[in-house]
Inverse folding.
């Protein structure tokens, strides 16, 4: 008997446990069934035009875990909230009821894509239009966060079911192209906002989608993607040049893309590739002042680079620089920067000759005038060439000076640097050329300018 009692207890416990589970299941089913009744009640209130009670009922039903993903409940919620939106009831309108309808429809598209599909698709499209309009309004009111949220919801609707939600509709039965365009532009608006807020890591994947889409594949968006790569953390050189290459193939004549290409090749130290690209560009646009100027400056940098000293033919490169500067100044004669840099080309060549003259002067002094006739002849020849270079340099320095001096008190940052450098170069050139009065004038100007 004692052996039976424990087994009896186990048996009774098992019966009680099973009874509890059955009762729990019954209770669960009862609650779920009651929530289905509440959904039906909400629909009845909707038909009666009692939107307040319909909203209360559907919110109560959706709040229950067992009901919140049921297709009928989600569809019913969307109908009720869209009705509230269409009625423009004052106490609800500021909460944008269509948004709750949209969230319910998006969830419905996820849990049961074919449920009342035709009606759901129309309502989703209408919600996308309203999200887009609200996004534009939010941006106009400087409410970036709401604007981005709205625009990304447009994209979410477009991309439902792997982006294939609307693919089977004939073009004359559904405005697919309109939705494609709205969604593509909405994504652009969000990406640009992230870019403006320096959130480059978030902007990059959006811009990658944007430039892959024919609707939004524009030079500006390519440039924004390139800039996002350059500003974001980490080394994105590979992505930058791949994007530049794709952008230039798509838009070979876009000036901003071309300038970006030149900048990043320069920044990466790809001088030979950059020069080749600029030479090709100048061949295509021989009268483009900016291209000729940029190419001339690259040649100038080559002449002044110690690394390139033994690699290049200085006479040949100097001639190329002179030709490019000549074209640039001919097309833009009133550019202080073009004139100043053209002057630098001649000034630097004169400075090199002046250093050689100083070395010869030391030898002449060591040997004495009678024993240094060869050196003296060389010196005189160098002096003539040097003076010719400095005379040419001053022609362009003086032009730059004449353009900047009348407005020296209101120059921008870039022009201030050019003006200061120009005064310094003129002061030094006049000293070498023995123009003391001009030297004093430039020195006084420079002193006064530096004290501003």
């Amino acid at each position: 008997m004692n052996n039976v009692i424990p087994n009896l207890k186990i048996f009774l416990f098992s019966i009680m446990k099973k009874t509890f589970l059955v009762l729990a299941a019954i209770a669960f089913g009862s609650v779920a069934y009651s929530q289905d009744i509440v959904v039906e009640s909400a629909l009845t209130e909707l038909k009666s035009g009692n939107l307040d009670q319909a909203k209360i009922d559907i919110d109560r039903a959706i709040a229950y875990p067992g009901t919140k993903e049921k297709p009928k409940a989600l569809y019913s919620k969307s109908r009720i909230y869209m009705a509230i939106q269409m009625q423009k009831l004052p106490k609800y309108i500021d909460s944008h009821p269509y948004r709750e309808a949209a969230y319910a429809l998006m969830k419905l598209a996820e849990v049961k894509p074919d449920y009342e599909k035709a009606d759901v698709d129309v309502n989703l499209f209408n919600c996308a239009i309203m999200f887009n309009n609200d996004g534009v309004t939010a941006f106009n009111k400087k409410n970036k966060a709401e604007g981005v949220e709205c625009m990304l919801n447009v994209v979410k609707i477009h991309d439902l079911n792997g982006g294939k939600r609307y693919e089977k509709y004939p073009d004359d039965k559904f405005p697919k192209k309109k939705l494609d365009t709205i969604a593509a532009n909405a994504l652009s608006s969000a990406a640009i906002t992230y870019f403006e807020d320096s959130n480059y890591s978030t902007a990059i994947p959006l811009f990658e989608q944007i430039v892959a889409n024919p609707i939004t594949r524009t030079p500006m968006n390519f440039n924004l993607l390139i800039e996002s790569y350059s500003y974001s953390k980490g080394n994105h050189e590979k992505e930058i040049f791949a994007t530049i290459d794709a952008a230039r193939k798509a838009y070979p004549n876009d000036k901003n893309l071309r300038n970006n290409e030149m900048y990043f090749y320069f920044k990466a130290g790809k001088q030979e590739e950059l020069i080749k690209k600029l030479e090709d560009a100048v061949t295509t646009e021989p009268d483009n002042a900016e291209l000729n100027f940029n190419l001339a400056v690259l040649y100038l940098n080559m002449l002044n680079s110690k690394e390139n000293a033994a690699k290049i033919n200085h006479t040949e490169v100097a001639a190329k620089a002179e030709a490019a500067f000549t074209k640039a100044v001919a097309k833009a004669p009133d550019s202080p920067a073009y004139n100043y840099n053209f002057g630098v080309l001649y000034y630097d060549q004169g400075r090199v000759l002046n250093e050689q003259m100083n070395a010869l002067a030391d030898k002449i002094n060591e040997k004495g005038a009678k024993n240094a006739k060869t050196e003296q002849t060389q010196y005189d020849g160098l002096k003539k060439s040097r003076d010719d270079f400095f005379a040419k340099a001053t022609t362009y320095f003086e032009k730059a000076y004449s353009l900047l001096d009348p407005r020296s008190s209101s120059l921008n940052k870039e022009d201030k640097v050019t003006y200061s450098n120009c005064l310094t170069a003129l002061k030094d050139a006049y000293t070498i050329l023995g123009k003391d009065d001009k030297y004093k004038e430039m020195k006084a100007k420079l002193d006064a300018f530096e004290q501003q």
Summary: The radius of gyration is 39 Å. The mean pLDDT is 90. The CA atoms of residues 209 and 351 lie 54 Å apart.
